[in-house]
Amino acid sequence: MARCSKEVVLKVIEQEKKKLDNTSVFGGFSRFLKGWLQKEGNHPQEWLEQLENYEDLSREERRRLLLTIESALRASPAPGKGVSPKSRKFVPSLAQPVRYLKGVGPALEKKLNRLEIFTVEDLLFFFPRTYRDRGTIKPIRSLQGVGIETIEGQVVQHKIEPTRRGPLLKVVVSDGTGEIRLVCFNRGYLAQFLKKGTWVRVSGSFRYAFGAWETAAFEYEVGKLKTADFERLVPVYPLTEGLTPKKLRTVILSALETCLHEVPEILPPALRERLQIPTKREAIRELHLPSAASFEELQARRSPAHLALILEEFLLFALSLKIRRRTLETLQVPPCPLESPLAERFIRSLPFSLTEAQKRVCLEIARDLASGRVMNRLVQGDVGSGKTIVAVISALRVVETGRQVAFMVPTEILAEQHYSRFREPLAALGVRVGLLKGGNTKGKRQLLEAIQKKEVDIVIGTHALIEEKVAFADLGLVIVDEQHRFGVLQRAKLREKATVPHTLVMTATPIPRTLALTLYGDLDVSVVDEKPAGRKPTRTLCFSLEERFKAYSRVRKLLREGRQAYVVCPAIEESEEEIANVQEVFEELQKKWLSEFRIEVIHGKLPSREKEGIMHRFSRGDVDVLVATSVIEVGIDVPRASVMVVENAERFGLAQLHQLRGRIGRGSEEGVCILLAALSGENVRKRMAILTATDDGFRIAEEDLRLRGPGEFYGVRQHGVPEFHLADPFADWPLLEQAHREAERIIAEDPFLEKPEHRLLRQEIERRFGRYLEFGEVG
Ligand code: ADP
Ligand code: MG
Q: Which of 210, 326, 443, 597 makes the best surface tag, with the fewest CB within 10 Å?
């Protein structure tokens, strides 16, 4: 077999990262990669060992391993020409692996790699997590014993005191105004460094004991410095095992010294002057070695250095989105006529009439589709507001012009459900719908062929839709349902498949515009702000875990009235534990609480055929109780199920719970949602109280945002927000907005960044955010 190039291997890793199931290569991905790395030589043994045991790693471990290998491969120069690293001369360059820095050996490199630091550039951009204020240097006499304080003096005495655990070194330091004792627990070796007569500066938390100040938690520096050299603000970095702050700082300082001057100044000088921000190099240095900024500014990420670097990152990102949008706007696509007999017929066939909000949003979409330009629209609407129908109507407009539609949903169960719900009514209109599943399911090849031959009009599926193999004959529209579970990146991939399809994103999570911009790119937004008439609000009750008896008696009563119920268990990301949990609850229900009813279990790990069967039986009414993980959270629609129990509700986010209960109360009966929660903390009580008090998704989202913080709320930490070095779209909103305004300004005067002062900007965008520009070249 010919040896694969590094590029091919990187592609394969990219593939595997999507599913982490060892299937991206025939014969096993891990075997393939291990073999390749071995042939290449010169890679850490650790990787090979982990690859050997790939099947036993958790998903998270697999992901981490792949990230590590991927970035190391990207950072390393062309592989294996038999040149050993030793024989290469050190050339200062940002792209060099860290091992070329003075003082970085293989052991240290490994530790740095664990922090995702592979190149000198990574090191320069590895910024402190926070800062410590050591205060000014004080006379010992005026120590106060509050917070971190710093003194400077001379070692005057070593005392060895016997203790139960052996001799304990105490070093006495005097500055003429008083004495302090340094208590050196497990640091007996300090006697060598703090010899009598040595000048030393000590920062620590001091307390007054036995007639003198002493400290056991302290840092020190020896040697008498000019006061001007005293570093009052000390950066605090994220660390990894075996890497001391001192060591890390030394390496960073060495990178600053040798390579900082190579960092390109990307922002046009005029812009920098107008905003009065420092140069990039000054800013990088300042964050590692703060001198000008105040402690408060640094803590709040509001120092001029922060502003400069964060703004630059946001600006690059905003520019890439705007360039992409510009590019899209210049593209012509065949317009879909405003009149659509197919959509009309479908609407007439519905057993209800559309709400005013649905009509309005449908019209907004129809206008986009008729404009001859590419549509990029986000539809927001609370659970149950009827977004799916809006999506289907839009799909029909596109199908009518002879093009295909990809309908992407986050779970297989939801895909099946949409499929079984719409296949027949659409077939009656002559529209062919296909269901594409992951893995090697039966009939998949035929379906893929049919898609390629345009024998299918609408394809519903999960991320299976973005696998390379799916080739649409003529993809006209991509619908992404319950969007916040997909990253920008995934959407981009799917859209590579056709010339330029329209995009429609549907989400139940209210998103501030700036964040929408960040997460999804530059989108137009429509809001379905009304629910179908006649809906009775769901009643929500909260019980503590000890009140299970009460809770399930209630459920029993409701079931006896002929209702159906969901019992939802918290999901622990596709783990075995999750299944055990569901199984346990199932057994308890069967034995104890609900023994007279028909109960079934459903979770993400079941083969899709089984899931299909269970959902089918449940929606037909052959099953009374469905015990499920939160796979049912998104979009499932069984109107007859009107009761829901959520086990360990405290483990869910509020928005998620709101989505969950959106599954019930869709029919004519009032829904009843019972939250079973460990009501331990004040916070949990508060959260549950919000849910029992209001049914307003926007309010709930706001509260959730306030109580849990945005990253977790939107679930984006795990879901591909573009990786910024320093900028954080959630913490730094105002700057994100400013960056969008600046980007607007730049693009207005130079749409494709062709002016010389924008050349570096453009290069950097291509380097860092190039994947957002997938519609051809910039300019
Ligand atoms: P979501 O916005 O949460 O995706 P769905 O599209 O799943 O909501 O719709 C929820 C339920 O409301 C479905 O059973 C759907 O058939 C029904 N529905 C949608 N629009 C209307 C309407 N205008 N009148 C009555 N019921 C509707
Ligand atoms: Mg939905």
A: 210
Average pLDDT over residues 350-357: 93
> Is the CB of 635 inside a 6 Å radius of any atom of ligand 1?
yes
Grouping H, G, I as helix, E, B as strand and the rest as coil, residue 500 is coil
Do 395 and 425 fall into the same domain?
A: yes
Same domain, 81 and 194: no
Same domain? 504 vs 547:
no
Residue 709 lies in a domain: no
Task: Report the CATH number at residue 492.
Answer: 3.40.50.300
761 lines ligand 1 (CB under 6 A): no
Q: What is the rounded distance in angstroms from the CA atom of residue 169 to the CA atom of residue 404?
A: 78
pLDDT at 282: 94
* Domain coverage including residue 437: 341-528
* DSSP run (H or E) holding 491: helix 488-495
Residue 261 lies in a domain: no
Give the residue, out of 637, 660, 669, with the most ligand 1 atoms within 8 A of its beta carbon, to mutate for a pocket test.
637
Tell me what pLDDT residue 324 has: 77
Assess whether 438 and 559 both reside in one domain.
Answer: no
Q: Identify whether the C-beta of residue 127 lies closer than 8 Å to the C-beta of residue 287.
A: yes
Query: Is residue 287 domain-resident?
Result: no
The answer to whether residues 560 and 659 belong to one domain is: yes
Atom of ligand 1 nearest to the CA of 355: 23
Mean pLDDT for 288-303 is 86
Distance from residue 554's CA to the centre of ligand 2 (Å):
29
* Arithmetic mean of pLDDT, 295-306: 89
User: Could you tell me if 490 and 569 lie in one domain?
Assistant: no
Q: What was the pLDDT predicted at 512?
A: 61
Asked whether 656 lines ligand 1 (CB < 6 A), one says no
- For the residues of 618-652, what is the DSSP string, one character each? HHHTS-SEEEE-GGGTTT---TTEEEEEETTGGGS
Find out whether the beta carbon of 425 lies less than 6 Å from any atom of ligand 1.
Answer: no
Cβ of 518 less than 6 Å from ligand 1? no
Could you tell me if 514 and 614 lie in one domain?
A: no
Residue from 360, 378, 385, 418 whose mutation best tests the ligand 1 pocket (most atoms within 8 A of CB)? 385
Question: Nearest ligand, CA of residue 379?
Answer: 1
Asked if 500 and 364 sit in the same domain, the reply is: yes
CA of 160 to the centre of ligand 2 (A): 71
448-478 pLDDT, tens digit per residue, is 999 999 999 999 998 778 765 788 888 899 8
Please tell me the distance between residue 361's alpha carbon and the centre of ligand 1 in angstroms: 14
For 71-92, what is each residue's pLDDT tens digit?
A: 788 776 654 444 444 444 444 4
Cα torsion angle, 539, 542, 543, 548, sign: positive
Least reliable range by pLDDT among 93-97, 298-302, 399-403, 643-647: 93-97
State pLDDT tens for residues 407-452.
988 777 788 889 988 999 999 999 999 999 877 777 888 999 999 9
Task: Specify which of 242-251, 265-274, 461-470 reaches the highest per-range mean pLDDT.
Answer: 265-274
pLDDT of 692-748, one tens digit each? 888 877 778 777 766 665 545 444 443 344 567 888 776 777 788 889 889 999 999
Of 665, 694, 723, at which residue does a domain stop? 694
Distance 760 CA to ligand 2 centre (A): 43
Q: Which long-range contacts (CB under 8 A, 24 or more apart) does 186-192 make?
A: 191/158
Kindly give the number of the ligand 1 atom that is closest to the alpha carbon of 481: 4
Q: Say yes or no: CB of residue 76 within 6 Å of ligand 1.
A: no
Average pLDDT, the chain: 82
Which pairs count as long-range contacts for 719-723, CB under 8 Å and 24+ apart, including other chains? Answer: 719/484, 719/485, 719/486, 719/487, 720/486, 720/487, 720/488, 720/489, 720/490, 721/487, 721/488, 721/518, 721/519, 722/317, 722/488, 722/518, 722/769, 722/772
Query: How many domains is the chain built from?
Result: 4
